[in-house]
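Late entry, evening session. Most of the bench is empty. Finally got around to the prediction I had been postponing all week. Sequence below, unchanged from the version circulated by S.P.
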Amino acid sequence: MKQILTSALRLAVVCGALALAACGGNTSGRAKTQDQVQTRSTAVLEIDELLAAADSLAGQTVTIEGVCTHTCKHGARKIFLMGSDDTQTIRVESGELGSFDPQCVNRVVRVTGRVDEERIDEAYLARWEAQVKAQTAEKHGTTEAGCATEKAARQETGNTVEERIADFRTRIAARKAAEGKEYLSFYYVTATSYEIQQ
């Protein structure tokens, strides 16, 4: 008799747990969205997927994979990973890792890290202009035009600092008119680990 009661109790607990799981699975759209984001952030994302959802992934840890097209010449502290084509590129910073292995170039690299946002607004541009005037601006690339790979990732068209700043101002004005936002958002990943895949 005791064995029958124990079996019945186990069956009741299992059925209750299944019922709670079934009812609790769709309690709100928000919970479902959080689950989807969590699933996305634990899976390996392609670069195109990351760029398409970057604003909703900002601040989260993701794992991405793409072809490394460039390593920063100044200590290999940045690499650029390409997705389906060269318009789908994201910058990856080494953060506390120090630097990337130069062997990353032209190979598939898997990176785990935090999605961060860089905002370019009028205050950013004014600081940049002041640094250029004082000749204290950080140099990227080998010419005044800047790092060609980073410019391509941000879809810049200017060939001088002045042209680049003017281009950003034009794009900020267009975004303000279209969306009411007075800044441009550029997303990048701060790596916590990486691995060369092939």
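Two things to note before I forget:
The radius of gyration is 24 Å.
The chain is about 45% helix and 25% strand.
Will write this up properly tomorrow.
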